[in-house]
């Protein structure tokens, strides 16, 4: 009998303790009532006959919403993979246990339906599905969803940290083909514009080079003209000087020439001009 009682005591002692890990928050529920005390990172003792220990994951979590539907004003529907980063607020665990239930019930009854409701509300102003490919539109949707969901769900104990849109946006095939053709046409236009810009730049460069050559030619012609004008001016000045010198200049040049000839020993006789002009014959006697 003592062994049976000892065995029952040990079993009761073992089953009346539970470990609450880090990142987990627990509360006790006894006779249907949830206590206000929360437990985390500790061993919790309880009476398994009257009390349950309810545990909630309060670490950062991520939930995928695959193929979330987005209907736009053109009555077309796109399907987008979206992900929510959230956490259960530890201080709200007693409220959740009392009014909502388990963590699974919290997600099923509060997080999921509110997400789809807010998604429809946030995207109803989109005029066409191709707007979903615009990065600014995506950022706006993500920001609005995060703010609205966080405001809506915080009172239930869910903190929404971020809503993210996957880059894999699924559209009806005819829409995909139309968008693809539109992008191809836009690319062709860009290519043609780039070619036009290239030719325009080349033409402008040709004009600049031609203008530079023309300017150089003008400068060369101006230089030639200036040199010609300088030579003409020099000749004109020399002519004027010669005309002013007259016969005196000629006689001076003759004397200079005679001096040079007088130095020649082979010369016998030189005569320049005549007696009337003041130049006498000069006899150069041979020294032999």
Automatic annotation (TrEMBL):
Keywords: Coiled coil. It is found in: Membrane. Pfam families: Band_7 (PF01145). It is a single-pass membrane protein. PROSITE patterns: PROKAR_LIPOPROTEIN. PANTHER family: MODULATOR OF FTSH PROTEASE HFLC. This is Band 7 domain-containing protein.
């Amino acid at each position: 009998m003592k062994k049976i009682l000892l065995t029952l005591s040990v079993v009761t002692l073992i089953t009346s303790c539970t470990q609450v890990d880090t990142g987990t928050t627990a509360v006790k529920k006894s006779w249907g009532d949830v206590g206000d005390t929360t437990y985390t990172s500790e061993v919790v003792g309880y009476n398994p006959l009257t009390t349950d220990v309810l545990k909630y994951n309060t670490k950062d979590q991520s939930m995928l919403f695959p193929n979330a539907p987005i209907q736009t004003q053109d009555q077309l529907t796109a399907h987008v993979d979206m992900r929510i980063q959230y956490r259960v607020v530890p201080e709200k665990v007693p409220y959740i246990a009392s009014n909502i239930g388990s963590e699974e019930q919290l997600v099923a009854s509060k997080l999921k339906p509110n997400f789809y409701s807010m998604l429809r509300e946030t995207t109803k102003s989109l005029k066409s599905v191709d707007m979903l490919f615009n990065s600014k539109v995506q950022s706006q949707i993500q920001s609005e969803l995060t703010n609205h969901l966080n405001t809506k769900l915080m009172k239930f104990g869910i903190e929404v940290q971020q809503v993210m849109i996957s880059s894999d946006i699924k559209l009806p095939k005819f829409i995909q083909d139309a968008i693809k053709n539109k992008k191809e046409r836009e690319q062709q236009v860009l290519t043609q514009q780039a070619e036009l810009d290239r030719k325009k730049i080349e033409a402008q460069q040709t004009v600049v080079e031609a203008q530079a050559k023309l300017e150089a030619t003008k400068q060369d012609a101006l230089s030639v003209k200036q040199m010609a004008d300088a030579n003409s001016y020099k000749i004109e000045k020399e002519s004027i000087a010669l005309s002013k010198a007259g016969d005196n200049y000629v006689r001076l040049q003759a004397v200079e020439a005679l001096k040079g000839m007088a130095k020649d020993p082979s010369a016998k006789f030189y005569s320049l001009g005549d007696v009337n002009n003041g130049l006498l014959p000069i006899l150069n006697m041979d020294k032999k």
